Amino acid sequence: MASVLNLFGIEALMAQKYKVGVCDWMILKRQKLGEFQLARQIGCDGIEMDMGALGKRELWDNKMRDPMEAAHFKHVADSLGIEVGAIAMSGFYAQNLAERDNYMALAEDCFDTMDRMGDVKVAFLPLGGCGNDWAYDKQQRAVIAKRLHDIGEAAKARGKRVGIDTPLDAKGNLRLLKEINSSGIAIFYKWQTIVENGWDVAKDIKKLGAGNICAIHASNTDRVWLRNDSTLDVPQIKKALDEMGWSGWLFVERSRDTSMVRNVRMNYSANVYYLKEVFGSNPEPAVKLDSAGRDPQYVQTIIGRSQKVTDALNITWTPIGRNVLNIVSNRYFKLNDIYAERDSVKKTNKALAEAQCDSKLYRSHYGFLADLSLYLTPQEVETVKNVMTFNVVKVTYEAQCDMIPTLKDEEKQQIMAWLIEARELAIDAESSKKKHEVFGKYKGRINNYLSKRGYDLMKEREEWYKRVKARGGTL
Fold first, then answer.
1. Measured between alpha carbons, how far is 282 from 278 in angstroms, rounded to an integer?
2. Rounded alpha-carbon distances, angstroms, from residue 409 to 394, 400, 453, 464
3. Which of 282, 287, 360, 442 has its CA 20 to 30 A from that of 200?
4. Long-range contacts of 200-204 (CB under 8 A, 24+ apart)
5. What are phi and psi of 251, to 5 degrees?
6. pLDDT for 189 beyond 60
7. What is the per-residue DSSP string for 150-172?
């Protein structure tokens, strides 16, 4: 058993002081089997699984009520090394706890699911559906406190805690917990609430105390990523939690960049990566960056260039992305070294310099592709090649087809074959100018081929220009 735990890093995960996860309903995978694979790609330690929609139903739309289905989910999670860190009753964001007379049945369904998903210890229960008036209305508040007491005592009897999300600060939450009077109820702390009220998270969280916090929603409202959020001092929050001696789960709920709000992988990968960076749980990439002895400014330029590749693949902030970033950066470093050596040898023996350069380019070219294949699919490797050659293959091919609508299938295939051949050479060229020169030679070959096939290229371009102009474009 120990070897299996080590294989997926679960022993290390269990020993972590801070674990980072995402809410499955926010990554569009609510109780979907794919949530575990996506969580792993994002770089999470685990997920906060939702109980499913509620609406006008009597009980949650909960697949995990079926023991066989739950066992299947648990098996997939375990096989990928992803924990279920909490179970959420997010339906109470919209449902009023004070008006749900079957609240205990809903809670017990949640507790059963927690057992089936690996003896999960923490549940999430937001009070958003109750509005904010209850906090000041004695009658409503008493009803909610009584129901939370019942839920808390049931949770405690089963070795669990239910974390509530309230609109209150530390002082208000401490007062509410006293009224509830059950150690089975704690605060599922939410940074967004504190920021929106203009309170200081680090100060508030210390006033609340470690023992009253069962988990944290470590994100703000959607606007920018956590690393770019000036309203949150995450390192200061981490310092406060360290001083408190708190440990547990940090779940990303929001903090999506609204300029790319639908890009699930990029948004949540970026936030998970940043939290792990601050809270000290980011594993080192397997591929090391070959930056030793290189000018730091040059290294940063190359990293920025290489990130265009991982951005195109939506993996920049993922564990795979970190390795791919280093592989691509190292390729640029290698090319620079090969051409620098060529230029040095050229001073005494030009022929030898070119021969050695060609040999090293050839051998290292396939090593680069092999390294990429350890982390990427063949289609993703194609994307890497295209990004590193400015997508000239796609642009040129589409332009040829648009210019000559009558191209036959075999002619299109030949054009594409030559462009791909050009790309394999251009990817190793020493500069953007040289890359375009490689494509330029192959474009000449394509033009000669089409001329021999009977196309009048000058006339085709003139007609193409007219069509493009007519649709409001330019060449």
1. 9
2. 16, 13, 13, 19
3. 282
4. 201/232, 201/233, 201/236, 201/237, 201/240, 202/233, 202/236, 202/237, 202/239, 202/240, 203/240, 204/169, 204/170
5. -110, 130
6. yes
7. HHHHHHHHTT-EEEEE-S--HHH
Rounded to two decimals, what is the model's pTM? 0.86
Give burial (CB, 10 Å; 0-12/13-18/19+) of 275. buried
Q: How far, in Å, CA of 26 to CA of 271, rounded?
A: 13
Beta bridge partners of 187: 164, 213
Amino acid identity, residue 354?
A: E
Cβ atoms of residues 39 and 19 within 8 Å: no
Strand, coil or helix: 186: strand
Report the alpha-carbon distance of residue 257 to residue 234 in Å, rounded.
Answer: 17
Query: How many residues can be counted in the chain?
Result: 475
Residue with token string 């770019």: 228
432 within 8 A of 305, measured Cβ to Cβ: no
For residue 452, give every residue at least 6 positions away whose Cβ sits within 8 Å of its Cβ, in sequence order, or none.
none
* Alpha-carbon dihedral angle through residues 138, 144, 146, 152, given to the nearest 10 degrees: -140
Query: What gap in Å lies between CA 142 and CA 127, rounded to an integer?
Result: 14
| 161-165/122-126 β-pairing | parallel
> Would you say residue 8 has pLDDT above 80?
no
Task: For residue 165, report the phi and psi dihedrals to the nearest 5 degrees.
Answer: -110, 115
176 phi/psi in degrees, rounded to 5: -65, -45
Q: What is the pLDDT of residue 282?
A: 84
At 66-79, the pLDDT tens digits run 999 999 999 999 99
Instruction: Extract the runs of DSSP E, i.e. beta strands, from 67-173.
Output: 83-88, 122-126, 161-165
Render pLDDT for 220-275 as a digit per residue (tens, 0 to 9).
999 999 999 999 999 999 999 999 999 999 999 999 999 999 999 999 999 999 99
Confidence of residue 7 (pLDDT cuts 50, 70, 90): very low
